[in-house]
Amino acid sequence: MVHLGGNDLGNPEQTPELLADEYISYYGNVGRVVVLCSVVYRVGPKNVSPETFAERADRFNAHLKERCSEYSHLLFWNHGRLGPYTVRDGTHLTDDGNWKFYLSIRRATLTALSVLQMQEETNLGLALYQPKKTLF
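Predicted structure:
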């Protein structure tokens, strides 16, 4: 599971789409199941206005979700908007926010484990019904 931070979204020289593509190029060929989590929205982001951050986060999350659908082992997980659950700095989560974040991570983990289980059942089924050729 990869939790994607939002620090890079403040870089005006890199589009959110290119940033998402970088994650896809790195994780597209590794692991049996990789969960790429959405950027958590921030009320008080660094280097950009909250409106700009939200717009860039929306673009990043939409593009990442679209690209994940191209790979059977990549799962996009959206945490939703946790912004109302931040402390005064607008970035770090309150106790309630951490609880909601934990529940989201837990659901993502259970989903990934379910996918792994389906992969195992599929592989077992293939082994039972499509034996490999044996040379004698």
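Summary: The first strand starts at residue 2 and ends at 3.
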